[in-house]
Amino acid sequence: MVVQVQGESLVDEVVVLKDVEAGLDGVVAIHSTVLGPGAGGCRLWQYADGQAAFADAARLAQGMSYKNAMAGLPLGGAKAVLRRPRGDFDRAALFRAFGRAVARLDGRYVTAEDVGTSVADMEVVARETRHVAGLPQRAGRPGGDPSPHTALGVFVSMAHAARRRLGRDLDECTVAIQGVGHVGEALAHLLHGVGARLIVADVDSDRVARVAVATGADIASTSQILAAQADIFAPCALGAVFNAESVEAMRAQVVCGAANNQLATPADGERLARRGILYAPDYVVNAGGIINVAGEYLGWTPEDVAARVEATGIRLAAVLDHAEAGGLPPHVAADTLARAAIAAGRVRAPAMV
Ligand code: NAI
């Protein structure tokens, strides 16, 4: 089945998930399996209706296809969205039922945790199917918390972007980090390790204080971090950070951070470009986590994972080269290259069988 979403995003396959007894009500959207099994996390969230859940799954599945393609992974893109039951519910029963549904897809979909789901939920899923990642790490194997890998990919990308836009290494830069959670905190430590100056903000005052003490960072309020006097701005909290108003307020010349969907609309990517701010596309630089998940599922060594994460800076360079050569904003260049990688896979696929 091929489904059109908003006239352009194609989803190859939609699987409706329903098990009334177990409280399972959701959808798996598989955007593409051209490059490999459709991989993407399982979100548990409240949605107004099934259509809203489907629209979110389709949008997120396309995002995973692009992210996986740009990371050079042998994976397609997909996402599961489950509607959170109202009130109390039997979590184990729900994820057992979800695991059985994933098993029935026979490897066309690989799941992992996402917003609203946890490692413990994936361990329940793993009792029903092997097409699941994000499980606790076993000695000598990839797995566990993906955040340090995400932070490393952002860090190497930032080093490239700083040299390219500012002509400087990170030890001569001030970096403003919005959100010092799992990724932001790890990024702060990496930057502190190479001598960068830091400004940090978080709604959690204990967290921000802890990071500031450990890294010598200045603290900014959450309302001021975007306009902080910094060379580089690293969004590591929320999506939709950039809109007409916030782009005007920016003082940094480089944006490079982990948050997903940083641009409220594609027009905001153009706004950043018009202001001369180099935007490192979010899904290109934040792929370290999915690279680790891929390594866990595909049986790579931790060294394979590390080498691929460290190559994130090289992949960003290719996107920015393509943007410059074509006079495109970086977010458009990234989408173009991702679509081309998937199309090339589609051409190659018949010859491989
Ligand atoms: P997290 O939940 O551990 O950290 C987010 C931090 O942002 C929290 O400390 C929170 O208090 C803070 N925050 C929330 N609202 C804020 C605001 N208005 N201003 C400043 N701080 C605020 O999440 P995590 O795992 O660190 O992820 C950060 C971002 O990166 C998210 O957008 C996530 O989707 C994205 N991402 C994370 C990956 C990972 O490996 N963890 C992989 C790829 C993307």
Question: Can you put this structure into words, describing what you see?
Answer:
By secondary structure, the protein is of the alpha/beta class. The protein is built from 13 helices and 14 strands. The strands form three sheets. Strands 3, 4, 5, 6, 7 and 8 form a six-stranded mixed β-sheet that branches. The protein has a six-stranded parallel β-sheet with strand order 11-10-9-12-13-14, with helices on both faces. α2 packs across α3, α4 crosses α5 and α4 crosses α10. 53% of the residues are buried.
Give a short summary of the structure.
By secondary structure, the chain is an alpha/beta fold.
Task: Please tag this protein with its features.
353 residues, 14 strands, binds 1,4-dihydronicotinamide adenine dinucleotide, globular, 13 helices, alpha/beta, single chain, disordered N terminus, 6-stranded parallel beta sheet
Structural class: alpha/beta
Number of helices: 13
Bound molecules: 1,4-dihydronicotinamide adenine dinucleotide
Biggest pleated-sheet summary: 6 strands, mixed
| Number of distinct beta strands | 14
Order of helices and strands: EEEEEEHEHEHHEHEHEEHEHEHHHHH
Report the β-strand fraction as a percent range. 15-25%
Shape: globular
> Unreliable runs, pLDDT <50, ≥5 residues?
1-8
What is the subunit organization of this protein? single chain
Q: What's the average pLDDT?
A: 93
Helix content: 40-55%
- Structural Rg: 20 Å
Distance between the termini: 22 Å
